[in-house]
């Protein structure tokens, strides 16, 4: 279990990114933090592995205060996947995946074997092992990013808008793939997104955040959909859904197309109906059967003002929040920390 206990983060320039945030995230399930840009999602995520240090409060992992753990070791045992995959451009797919295990002194042969295994896990053809990131599609790069996040076999996987930069169809594939992987591996996943549909699709638990990391609502997708806690939440889930998402629902042998406000927008031909299926009260909980039409909002990149810290793995703990825009070299630290990655023994 990951527990946020009264966590606040004020950056040196005075920005209060997170204001007294408390939440328990159950193990082996997916918790999604969803909110618009600037609501504090990334800051919350990075405090878990101490890429950002809180100003006050505690974060416990299985009752252990992360502040008492060595940040570098902590980061090496928590998987981290970011939006632009964060791959090292001058290293092959295999080397990218094996980097952190090698940093952890896993013998090279073992790290390589494990990297091949992980490529299979995330649905990458082994023929791609020797390619460089630039020679992959966006979706393939993200798969490598996920494989790399899993490489140290972490209990915890942090994912920061990992599928935000790929087109909607590929994103859908990656989402399904993540759910499949999670059914097999059952990690404790903290997933950040600004896309409410993605949150409802992936999350066992969804936390809707407003500015300052304030919890507007926390619950299962069904709880939130059937009982929005406030107008803010209703707007957040409703505006999006009304505009973009239609849901298919079975009723009396017909397939109804229902819009985000619960109104029936149409009926599909009888041959597509799979028979009567009962629908929960309120009828708005069928999020898994959702189809998404239109892409305008889903395609907008998060206008994220922050970027990954450089040298996260090797940075000194006292300067963690100096955000220099170097996403590709980001969390893997400097070159000289990866002995044996490039040079075959
Ligand atoms: N290193 C930083 N220095 C100053 N302000 C920051 C820094 N990183 C993030 N912020 C600010 O903190 C707030 C939350 O940012 P962030 O956690 O990145 O939000 P999100 O991931 O939800 O878009 C924003 O107002 C952002 O501008
Ligand atoms: Mg962010």
Automatic annotation (TrEMBL):
Domain annotation ABC transporter: ranges: 2-237
GO molecular function, one term: ATP binding
Region (Disordered): 296-345
Keyword Nuclease: no
Annotated Polar residues bias: 304-313
Highest taxon listed in the record's lineage: Bacteria
Keyword field contains Plastid: no
Keyword list, A-Z: ATP-binding, Nucleotide-binding, Transport
EC number(s) stated in the UniProt entry for this protein: 7.6.2.9
SUPFAM superfamilies reported for this sequence: P-loop containing nucleoside triphosphate hydrolases (SSF52540)
Family the entry assigns: Belongs to the ABC transporter superfamily.
Protein name according to UniProt: ABC-type quaternary amine transporter
Species of provenance: Mycetocola lacteus
């Amino acid at each position: 279990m990951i527990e946020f206990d009264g966590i606040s983060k004020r950056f040196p320039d005075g920005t209060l990114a997170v204001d007294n945030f408390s939440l328990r995230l159950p193990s082996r399930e997916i918790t999604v933090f969803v909110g618009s840009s600037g609501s504090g999602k990334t800051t919350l995520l990075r405090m878990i592995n101490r890429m950002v240090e809180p100003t006050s409060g505690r974060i416990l992992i299985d009752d252990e205060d992360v502040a008492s753990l060595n940040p570098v070791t902590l980061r090496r045992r928590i998987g981290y996947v970011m939006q632009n995959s964060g791959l090292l451009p001058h290293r092959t797919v295999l080397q990218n995946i094996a980097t952190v295990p090698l940093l952890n002194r896993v013998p090279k042969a073992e790290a390589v074997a494990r990297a091949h295994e992980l490529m299979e896990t995330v649905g990458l053809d082994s023929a791609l092992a020797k390619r460089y990131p630039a020679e992959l599609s966006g979706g393939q790069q993200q798969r490598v990013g996920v494989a790399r996040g899993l490489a140290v076999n972490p209990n915890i996987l942090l994912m920061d808008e990992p599928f935000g930069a790929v087109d909607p169809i590929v994103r859908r594939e990656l989402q399904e793939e993540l759910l499949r992987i999670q059914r097999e591996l059952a990690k404790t996943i903290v997933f950040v997104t600004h896309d409410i549909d993605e949150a409802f699709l992936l999350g066992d638990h969804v936390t809707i955040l407003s500015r300052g990391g304030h919890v507007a609502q926390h619950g299962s997708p069904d709880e939130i959909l059937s009982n929005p806690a406030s107008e803010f939440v209703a707007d957040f889930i409703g505006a999006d859904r009304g505009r973009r998402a239609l849901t298919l629902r079975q009723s009396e042998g017909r397939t109804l197309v229902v819009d985000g406000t619960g109104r029936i927008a149409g009926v599909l031909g009888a041959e597509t109906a799979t028979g009567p299926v009962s629908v929960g009260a309120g009828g708005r909980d069928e999020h898994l059967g959702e189809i998404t039409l239109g892409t305008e909002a889903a395609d907008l990149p998060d206008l994220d003002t922050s970027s990954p810290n450089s040298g996260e793995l090797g940075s000194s703990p006292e300067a963690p929040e100096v955000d220099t825009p170097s996403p590709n070299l980001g969390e893997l630290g400097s070159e000289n920390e990866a002995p044996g990655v490039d040079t075959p023994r």
